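fyi for ur records
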Amino acid sequence: MSDNLFAPQSIAIVGASNKKGKIGTIVTENILKLGYGGKTFLVNPSYKMLKLKRCYAALSAIKKPVDVAIVCVPAKFVADVVKDGAATVKNFVIISAGFSENGAEGAKREKELSDLAKKHKLNILGPNCLGFIAPNLKLNASFAGGLPSAGNIAFVSQSGALAVAIMDKAKEEHLGFSNIISVGNKMQLDETALLEYLENDQETKVIGMYLEGIKDGVRFLKAAKKVSEKKPIVILKAGKTAKAQQAISSHTGALAGSDEIMDVAFASAGIIRANDLDDFFNLLGLISFADAPRNGAAAVITNAGGAGVLTTDAFKGKEIALAEFDEKTKKQLADQLPGESSVQNPVDLLGDAGEERYKNVLELLNKKEIGSIICVLTPQEQTPVQKIAEVIVEAKKTNTAAIATVFIGGERIGSAVSYLKQNNIPNFANPDSAVEALDKYYKWSVSGKRGTSAAGKKSPQRKKRVTDIIAKAQDQKRGALLFPEAAEIMELYGINCVKAYAILPGSPVPEVAEFPVVLKIDSDKVLHKSDKQALILNIKDKGALLSAIDKLQKNFPGAQLVAQPMQEKQTEIILGIKKDDIFGSVIVYGLGGIYTEVFKMVDFLIPPMSVAEIKSSILKGKLKFLFEGARGQAAYDADEFAAIVAGLMDFALENGQVREFDINPLFIYNDKRKASAVDVKIIL
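which gave:
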């Protein structure tokens, strides 16, 4: 994408008009009247002159350079406009609606437009978009009214109407923008392309996105990982409720809703996810105004004990935490404050606190290793609200901590809150919002130092062997691999499987070396064996085995059977691969066995990840108690389990043709015995 798409020195407006209410009129007036300093060309064959400017019949009639063409004509004429200008104009913003959002005919038009873009190597924003705004250039190339303040927030929206609402709200919040970009149908320039552009935009400190869908999840996460190491990405993602699940064959498929995977995917890329619109604004304001907390230690200053308690509660479950003050700090605080004040954290300045108490405590804390300071205020009768706000603004100039305020109230705090925001101090309506935003910002700053993930080395020979095994099953019209086939594949990826004896219909029973054994159906038609009474446990000798074989062969004529030595159970784990529509292969792991879908104690991982990253995730996840040694038990081997998960990731990345997969159960032990897979489903 060329830089001059969003920083053009010349613009042509195709469909420029002076008829009231027309989009072409609004766009023309926005560009001509709001201070844009570049050259503007008006294009409309119905006019010779328009707005006291020459009006051209077509783009091709303009014999001067045009960086961007803004197209506001009916959908049926758009392709002709692009064809006409493609030789000289390389950037188009298609505001016109009536494309893929509007049925088969519209989809056909969009396909034609996409083909033109590829043929002529064009950049096309839209179609069906609001346009874009570059406040620093005083350029409003959209049909939204007004010009937002210039600043360091880049905002990308899949909804034009929501973009307008957010611009209006931003005025109240004193937020400024480097870019506001509406993506419309995302025919060519999607959220990934815009991330890649904004990564190197010097005016952008934080990228905010409202998304309803993600066009190419794998490509998007790859770009986001790279960008988030430089600057924060805050996303408000619509569509949290999962649609009804389609019929699925493996346990794994029943475990994950799309929104759970979205959370994990965003976290894996260092993306900050906003819970709702309020959280979105809180995060954008905080990041725009402040640097990230340099550490997880937080201090709270308050003039109200109750508000201090509420703020303390807000830290529950967060990575940032209230700092423990040493005795020297407590004495220094006591020297500055009345005897009734609390010198613990939160520091209670008492209800009669004036600006001097806030000033003195802020100066003292500036000399400590504090990452963030939250100044809480309630407007009591004697509280000089404005003067306290001025003290906080002044303190920010020299303080190394991220400073935020929680001024609680209504009319009495209104002007002070506005003053704080005008001077780049984020104010939050309540303590929970403040702590939530600071915690997310801090976690981003830590995750941004993680480096790029790396998958294991790919093996062409291994992949070929797997492909051959799968091809054989497909030739036999089977929908799943048999256990011996699946076990052979797992061994290639370092995953140990229980020894198995295949028992084929009409063939001699193999000699089983050890008893007791379990006998079960090995068929792509019977995947949930417990439910179908398709397994028999604790078979103690050959005679009992022959009887069990006879029983299962009568109940399941023609099916292959498999016998396995009984394994002593300790802890059962499920491991699986879920095919996500957006992000591709997702690794699922958690407590396994027959209660897998009851408890749903599972976590998700998005490949690729290094073994070290996998281990770190395991030790933070729902199963961390196993690897920490719960209730005095010996800890399970996190390194062994991380290596197994890494092998499964390699399998997922190398074998995209596998539709569903799970190991349930994988037996793991905390007494030096090797983990082993008892049942493996590879569904094609």
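The chain is about 35% helix and 20% strand. thats all i got for now
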